[in-house]
Fold this sequence. Notes:
The protein has about 250 residues and is α+β, with helices and mostly antiparallel strands. Helices cover about 25% and strands about 25% of the residues.
Amino acid sequence: MNINGKFPRDLTERERNWILWMLPEDKPGYRAYREMIKEMMIIGYGRFEPDNLILGQPNDKPDEETFFTPIISLGQIEMREARIQISIHREHRNQIQVDIVNLLGDTIPENVSEIRRWSYAYWNPGDVSPCTEKPVREVKIFSRTEHNLILVISPSDKKIWLHEIDSGINYIIPVTNFFNELLRQRKEIIDKTGGLNVNFIFENIDRFSDADINNAFINYSKIFAKVDVGAYEEVKEKKGLFSFLKRKTKK
Length: 251
């Protein structure tokens, strides 16, 4: 993607337009990122050249810890000639990693015909998946004092994200690690599937109660420390009430 390997350099007009579109201006969390990025330059590559770009201040060098921060925006720009996937990571020490990848080739043509664009960043409670326009399941993460997190599971595109109500930011959650924790909540399913089977879990997500999903997320977050869940708690199910509850995805 990069037009050359000399740093620092400004974002091209096309790069800037794509990145800012992935950060909805009407959400306060993303609006803050827009303002940060407007003041940044590309200062180097991340782990994978040339698709991982590190944004920062001109005299800075890429901080390797920036490479592993959670994704706050993930979306695509679909064209006749290319399909551009853009992911933007959480800021770390005034640096932000942005990945711009053509899923259909090694380079991005200059002249393109856009078909549509979408991003999980635009999702709000009650919405369908921005990618597939299919229903999703929403689970409020439990706390006696905080009511700011909703975990969203989208079987149609096999994605999970965490909606932060105050900021509007949607953090992308890695599926495999979260599902491993989810299976610990319902070990009898492991016996039936023989282990982690991502497709099976998405297709059967209604077999897991809200408590299963809440507790799996709390444990997952404690281990991988992607999101601060200090005020959030595990919940106990009342036997016979939730244990065999089969929920349907919201419409």
